[in-house]
Amino acid sequence: MEVPLGLGIASAAFILSAAIVSIAYLTFLCWCTLPCCRSRPPPTDEERGPANSGAANVPDPAATAELPKAAVRRYAWPEVESLTGNFTATVIGEGGFSTVYLARLPGADSSLAAVKVLRSGQRVHRAFLQELDVLRHLSHPRIVRLLGFCDDREEGVLVLEYVPNGSLHEKLHGGDALPWARRMWIAYEVAGAVEYLHEGCGELPIVHGDITAANVLLDDRLDPKLCDFGSAQAGFSSAVRSAGPVVGSPGYADPHYIRTGMVSKSTDVYGFGVLLLELITGLPAVGSEEGRVLTAEMRPRLREAGRSEWEVVDPRMGGEYDAAEAAAMASIAARCIGVQPSLRPSMAAIRQIMGEKMSSSLSAVDGGSDGKAE
């Protein structure tokens, strides 16, 4: 019997449709049952979109114990008590959420360490986990090294490399004037550390979030080491809304962040610009006089810095500085603290300019490192 043409075509279409549905169903079953079919890389910031991009999820420290950081030790709480003499050891630092004790580590070398004990509290503990996760992924000669941690209790503990000469803030504003060449070296090396965070420390860029003179420590050679990653966040696109702790200290906080809550690499660039102003002028970011802010005071003078750098350079220098370097440094600072984040230079560009314009001072300082990652 002859099958009508229309019926034959309809039958063929039905068979083809059934075959497609069967293949799709089998594929779905494979995806549901085979782990290799389910796995895929986590979405990038571009895939999430600006509204959903932001800090990477902080893994449990116990789950990251096998990361290639064998020197990082996990301490039990009784060991922390022993290290700090039951918290009676010398206090070498104190903030709103932590106390830092000087401790001597057990072992053949009995080296000194800084034991940072955070206050209890859910929000502080989240910040501790975030700081711990960031530090575990860093290895740079100008960043304070993580030696160990304790997460047995809500009071998180970080055991850090001890840096003996205090902070840059203390040295700039509480002691003898640092020589000009040393100031140039410190600025150049801190720029290298921040560039490493932004560009070279791993798959995700890291925004430090609190670049200040107090968060730059000086070792026995007066070489700088960047510390305090409590505000640091990883995994940023060019500009995202912060979901973490408040970013920035008084006098250093990026006005764009204050207005919008948006954090990016340019947030660190702004803080670095304020740090440059401190190194140039010898003045603190916020003065003892009510309402005095260094950036507001210096912006009009920076416009004229190329012709009258003597008006902005720390008078304690007694004229012992390179005028061309001072003008170049003031120009960099002016660009860093610009109102428009998109017009601020990158840390890589800043370091390149400093290397070119300040070669005289940089070559005069035997810092023992070119500031590159280990």
From TrEMBL:
UniProt keyword annotations, A-Z: ATP-binding, Kinase, Membrane, Nucleotide-binding, Receptor, Transferase, Transmembrane, Transmembrane helix
InterPro entries reported in the protein's UniProt record: Kinase-like_dom_sf, Prot_kinase_dom, Protein_kinase_ATP_BS, Tyr_kinase_AS
Origin superkingdom: Eukaryota
Pfam hit, one: Pkinase
GO MF term (any one): protein kinase activity
Annotated residues for binding of ATP: 116
Spans annotated as Disordered: 41-61
TM region positions: 7-28
Protein name in the entry: Salt tolerance receptor-like cytoplasmic kinase 1
Residues in Protein kinase domain copies: 86-362
Gene Ontology CC, one term: plasma membrane
